[in-house]
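Give me structure tokens for this 323-residue protein.
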Amino acid sequence: MHNETVLRKQFLAHVGQTSPSPMLIEVERAEGTFFYTPEGRRYYDLVAGVSVSNVGHANPAVVRAVQEQAARYMHVMVYGELVERPQVRYAAKVASLLPQPIDSLYFVNSGAEAVEGALKLAKRFSGRTELVGMRRAYHGSTHGAMSMMGTPEGEQWKAAFRPLLPDVQSIEFNDFAALERITRRNMKEAVAEHIQAKCREDAAFAMLVMDPVKSMVHCFQYINRKAQAYAEQEMKDNGIQRTGIYGLDVPDGLCYQWAEDYFNDENAEEDHKNDEKFIPKPYISASANRKTAKGKADKKPVPAAKPKAEKPKDTGMEQISLM
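Here you go.
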């Protein structure tokens, strides 16, 4: 009993837990669909090592294959450099079961790593940046996989790690109408294209866009301000307290409407802000620089006072995704 207590204390002290109340069941051995404690207590293993042991624990064929392979070699370079018979035969078998033209496999270590690879492959192949996942779906705890965790349900797990990947939205299973919300470009490009289309349809609106006071930079600032107000109202309506971090997806339609509202708003505050202006510095010749440097060298330097660091203003928004 003493050894068991020590082992559990070591487990709690040195092994990272993924829940506040771990089961603390010590596993002595496993066979078939059961695992056993040192006292001989038997438990059904309904998780099967997250499907790793999906043919049963201590399966004789698996044990034999592992023992034979371990006697040859355990691990060398697996990333497509060396020809390893078990890996090649496995890849060929899986490829034979895949639909054409898929005929190549990239081996990874976990489900989360597979998701990360899939995200990168999708971006590389399509040239697009928008990522779409399902609500109430779990994909892993790495940065990209966590970004794809369903919103808003996933905020319980991912809010503390924002900002995550941008350009991500969540849709419902079997909601085919939601597919119409998927865009093929980022939101700035989509808004600009929407404004161009509106100008072609409405000459009066085109005149508003041509107003020299108006600009697309101010338009995006206007949309950002409206999105923050929208997020504040969403939190209020859903009884969510401000914690400084909150993730929210803003529908495309709202962004398009806000863009139109900006060009129709003669008193938009973004148009009346003092934009930073470029002030050219006077030209100073090289000889004047040398004289100035010599004069400074003769004087005793006076340490400059350190400016007080301004505390960043808490807006309550760390990331707003404009879908």
